[in-house]
Amino acid sequence: MPVVDVQNVEGEKVSQLDLADGVFNVPVRSKVLHEVVAMQLANRRSGCASVKHRGEVRGSRRKLFRQKGTGRARRGDVKSPLLRGGGVVFGPDGRTYAYKVPKKVRRLALKMALSSKLQENHLLVLDQLELSRVKTKDVVHVLSTLNLQNALIVTAEKNDNLELSARNLPDVKVLRSAGLNVYDILKYHELVLLEPSVKHIEGRLLS
Asked: Strands 172-176 and 151-155, how do they pair?
């Protein structure tokens, strides 16, 4: 069972915490991680390219001119694809790129991502990170003290002061344990877990 030091915001060791083997000590397989990250990125694609076909263009359905006797090619309404402003014949209709990976694979990939951070010594556990006000400078000071520059901070519950204070920092993200995902864990260099969030994560992945 892995054991990690629990630090305070000053970088001082205050206690130790036992981590569950089934979550933080799982063999890492890059193929599984890649499969889940590819799914997450595909689900984020909008796929919103779309055109209007003849029946969707706004306009009158009146025949532009009579069928015979004008010397011109016969013509229907103004929405014809042959006319400017008319419908498009074979244009895209919009699509979704989303697909699903089995739940067991997604859960396994999340365990692997957490284990990889622990194996690479990029996992930090803090006893708490409470701010008395919404101030970006306060978050910067804490990160500077802990020597963190690119970090994902995971909280157990909603923390308005911390979330609002960190939202303008380009290389820092605050995420609640309920929304923890493989892509964000791998995207950021350091993973910072607040001590209460560890139990939430273990309870979620071991249930």
From this structure: parallel
